[in-house]
Structure to design on (191 residues):
């Protein structure tokens, strides 16, 4: 167990803390939950940096890191969808964005696993577009988690960033599917 792996495990362990803080009946609970989420997002970048810099990449870390990221984001999205239910049409935008983001993660994870079985995982490696998507998504979630579900300037900015993230999410998914299409469209029955 090295430092990058410990940071990844810490991110998973922070999920129940994050949920508890979000639901506490105090005026500061949203900000505290958002701070824990932001800290987890920073550890995500930091553990990857340390793993590369210290040459401490491990199979365990390669497996758990994306799982921890997806769990933290999915939990945040589910909490926000539930909490923002009274915001009418804005809630519909949040829900659609959450479905797109979570659905894309499932599709791309399955695609990467399948491509790895074919020995072609490099065709669906993380792209720069995925990094922009992640940045917009994380910033949106930090903003939305920190604020109560009311129509304010910051909440509108958070929604706008999440919609941008959902758009980039779809775009990156289509890029991954196009890169994998030659493998997906091969007729394996004839071989």
């Amino acid at each position: 167990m090295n430092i990058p792996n410990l940071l990844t495990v810490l991110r998973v362990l922070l999920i129940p803390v994050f949920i508890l803080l979000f639901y506490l009946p105090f005026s500061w609970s949203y900000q505290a939950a958002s701070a824990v989420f932001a800290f987890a997002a920073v550890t995500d970048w930091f553990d990857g940096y340390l793993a590369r810099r210290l040459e401490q990449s491990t199979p365990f870390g390669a497996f758990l890191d994306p799982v921890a990221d997806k769990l933290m984001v999915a939990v945040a999205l589910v909490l926000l969808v539930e909490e923002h239910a009274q915001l009418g049409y804005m809630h519909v935008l949040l829900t659609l964005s959450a479905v797109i983001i979570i659905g894309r993660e499932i599709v791309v994870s399955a695609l990467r696993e399948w491509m790895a079985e074919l020995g072609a995982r490099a065709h669906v490696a993380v792209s720069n577009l995925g990094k922009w998507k992640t940045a917009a998504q994380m910033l949106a979630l930090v903003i939305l988690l920190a604020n109560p579900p009311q129509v304010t300037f910051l909440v509108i900015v958070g929604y706008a960033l999440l919609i941008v993230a959902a758009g980039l999410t779809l775009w990156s998914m289509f890029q991954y599917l196009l890169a994998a299409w030659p493998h997906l469209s091969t007729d394996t029955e004839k071989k």
The first helix runs from residue 3 to 23.
